[in-house]
Every structure is written in C-alpha cells, then in structure tokens.
Amino acid sequence: MGEKDLLSWNAMIACYAQNSRPKEALQLFNLMRNHNVSVQPDEMIFDRAISACSQLGDLKFGLWIETYLSKIGVELDDHLATALVDLYAKCGNIEKAYELFHGLKKKDVVAYSALIFGCGINGKAFEAIRLFREMTTAKIRPNSITYTGILTVYNHAGLVEEGYKCFSSMTEHGLMPSADHYGIMVYLLGRAGRLDKAHGLIKSMPMRPNVGVWGALLLACRLHSNVELGEIAAQHCIEMEPDSSGYCSLLANIYASAERWDDAKRLRKMEETKFDQDTWS
C-alpha cells in the first residue's frame, strides 16, 4: 500500500479503538502526527484517540489532546466534547465532566450514558440515578450501554428492588437484556442473600449463561457460604473455563466456611496437582 490518505488512517485507528486495542490506536495516532505524513488528524481521528485514552484511563494524554485541539483551532463540537465527558468521568474528574456536559448544545444518550457510568464508578450512585431519571423524563431513550452503567450503579449501592425494577424496564425501551446485564443482576440479588432468586433468574435467561453470569453467582455463594448453589455455579464455570483454578479455589473457600474440611482439602489438593502439571508441561 502506498501513501496512506486520511480515510486509511481513520479506518485503522477506529479499528483498534473499537476492538479493545487502545494502545495500538494511540501508537498509530502518534505515528500519524510525528512522521511527517502528508495528512493531519481530523475531528473523527481525535475522537477515536480520546476514546482510546478513556479505555486506558490515560487522563494525561487525553488532556494533551484537548490542549492540542485548542492550539490548532479545532472547534470542540458536541461529538468531541462528549468523548471528553467520557474520559473525564471515567478518570474521576466528575466536575470537569459536568462542565463539558452542561456545555453541550444537545445532550444525547451517549453523553448521558458516559456521565451515568462515570458517576457510578466514582461513588456517586444517587447522582447517576438522578441523571438516568432526567434522561428518561427528557424522552431520551436509554440504550444497552446506559443500562450497563445504571445497573452497575444499583449493584454498587446495593439497591436491590430499584435495580430489579430498572432491569425489568429494559423491554419497555425495546431492549433485550444481554448476558452482561443478567450477570450484574445475579450478583446484585446474590450479594443481598437472595441466592435462590438469582439462580432462578439464570434459569430464565433466553440465552446460554456465560461464565460471567455463573461466576457472579459463585462469588455471591462465597459471601453467604451457600454450598449447594456454589457447587452448581462452580461446575458450570469449570466446564466453560477448565484451565482456570480460581473457581476451584472459591468453591474450596465455600466448603471451608461451611466446615466441610475434607471437601476443601480435596479441592486444594487438586489445585496443587494441576499447578505442578502446568509448571512442568
């Protein structure tokens, strides 16, 4: 391939940024700037670069991009400002995220979702809930990402009934809960001691539960020393990820907390044997 045009750079950086390879996206962005190429980044490329910074939690480089945008006279439109809202929110600077959010000409689901998630992971659960209600009152329909954020908020805050009501409202907005949404709800219910309901929710899933869902139940069983459901969850986890020793370890801890010492010892012996085999293989 000869000299790359702006479209080629954009496509490659977007490909990396959108497929969980943010380091490569930023490496390509830097290559574009520093190697005397004949084209310069446009607003779309800057947006991808800021997204990569958000994924990495690299506030320092994100700040540099914002300063550079101002320096070269690129207008901070709603698209770029929303990307920066996401960056600041994820990196813990909620005040700056709000400043940019309030400056948006039109607040859309992407902007609200970014701020909701940021508030949630930074201990501002009730602020995140307020934003979610504000968004729905404004007739802005939440998407799957919004629900991941707000359900995570309810999970962190331990608000079981509110979280379950929110989860149930997904279908009202034309959304089918994903396995990730189910996983969050399973842990929320399980952590509150409602393990049977959490297991029932798994059995009601319209898709095959993934290891994240069963792992959520296993963690909750560890919290409450529930051997019966812990064994079921661990069995599924081990079947899906047989090379991981963590599930056996969690089940051994459940046995120990229930004073089933022989079972705990047996599992730990199995772990040691597997470790020795992996070491010498």
TrEMBL record:
SUPFAM superfamilies the record matches: TPR-like
Coiled-coil annotated residue ranges, if any: none
One GO BP: RNA modification
Keyword Repeat: yes
PPR repeats: 5-39, 108-142, 143-177
Keywords: Repeat
One Pfam family of this chain: E_motif
GO molecular function: RNA binding
PROSITE patterns: PPR
InterPro entries given in the database record: E_motif, PPR_At4g14850-like_plant, PPR_rpt, TPR-like_helical_dom_sf
NCBIfam families assigned: PPR
Protein name: Pentatricopeptide repeat-containing protein
